[in-house]
Amino acid sequence: MKKQYLVFFFLCCILAACTNNDNTPDTGTENISAEEQSLMDAVAKFPDSLLLREQLIQYYRDSADYTKAIAATDEALKKDSLNDRLWDIKGNLHFENYDTINAITALNRAAGINPIPQYIIPLGSMYAQTKDSLALNIADFLLEAKMTRDDKEAFFIKGLYYNFTGDKSKAISFFDKCINIDYNYMYAYREKAIALYDLNKFEDAITVLDKAVTLQNKFDEGYYWLGRCLEKTNKQADAIEEYKNALRISPDYVEARDALKRLGAQ
Question: How far is the CA of 184 from the CAs of 102, 158, 176, 219, in angstroms?
Fold first, then answer.
C-alpha cells in the first residue's frame, strides 16, 4: 500500500475516533429581543429550514452570545447529525469562544463526514496550537494527497506546530517556505515575526513585519506586532504609532488598546 493511502487511512481513523461530548448550558428565555423572537418564531414555524436556523445562529454569533449560538446549532444537528456544514459552524463557534478542545471535536466530525481542505486545514492548525503532533500527520496528509492548490497551508501547519512547541528555528524555516510560495500570505509573516520575537531577535522581526504591512497596509496584526517589537527596542513613540495604526484598522483590537493604555497613550 502506498504511503499516501496509509496516511489517508490514519487520518480517517483520527477523524472517526472523535465524538461530540461537549455539554452546552441551557440558554434561558430571558431578555429576548424582538429580532430574536422573530427568528425563533420562524424556526418554530419552519423547523426543516436550515437557512432559518443558520440565520438564528448568526444572530447569536453577531451578538457574541456563543452559549445560545452553540445551543441553536445543537438543535439543528438533532435534525441532521450528518450535516458537515453544521459541524463546521459549531467548531468555529467554539473556537471563537476560546474553546479549542470542543472546536477540534466538532471539526473532526465535519471532516469525518466530508474530508475537504476547508475543514482539514483549520483542524490541523488547532492541533498545532494545542501542541498535538497530529498536526504534523494532517500536514503530511495534505502534502501527499495534493488536496490544495499549493503546499503553503501544510507548511504553515508544520510551522505553527513547531512555533507552539518551542522549536522556533524550525518553525521559521516552514514559514519561509510559505512566503516563498505566496509572498502575500500574511499569517506566515505574523507567525515568523512572533517566532523571532520569542528568540529576542526584535530587529529581524521588525524587518519581517515592515515587509508585511508594506504588502498589505490593512494588516492590523502586523502593526500590533510591530508595536510589540518596537517597545522591546525602547522606541515607545514609534510603538504607540503602530498600535494606533492597528486600532485605525480594527477599532475593537483589545490588545492594541490595552498596549496604548499601558504606555499612557490614547
Answer: 31, 19, 12, 11
Residues 6+ apart with CB under 8 A from 238: 230
What pTM was estimated for this model as a whole? 0.81
Q: Are 179 and 171 in contact (CB under 8 A)?
A: no
CATH assignment at residue 257:
1.25.40.10
**At residue 46, what is the residue type?**
F
Count of domains observed in the chain: 1
CA distances to 20, 86, 98, 167 from 71, in Å: 13, 12, 16, 39
Grid cell at residue 56:
438564528
pLDDT along the chain (266 residues), means of 10: 45 49 47 84 86 90 92 92 94 93 94 92 94 95 83 96 97 97 96 97 98 96 97 96 96 95 87
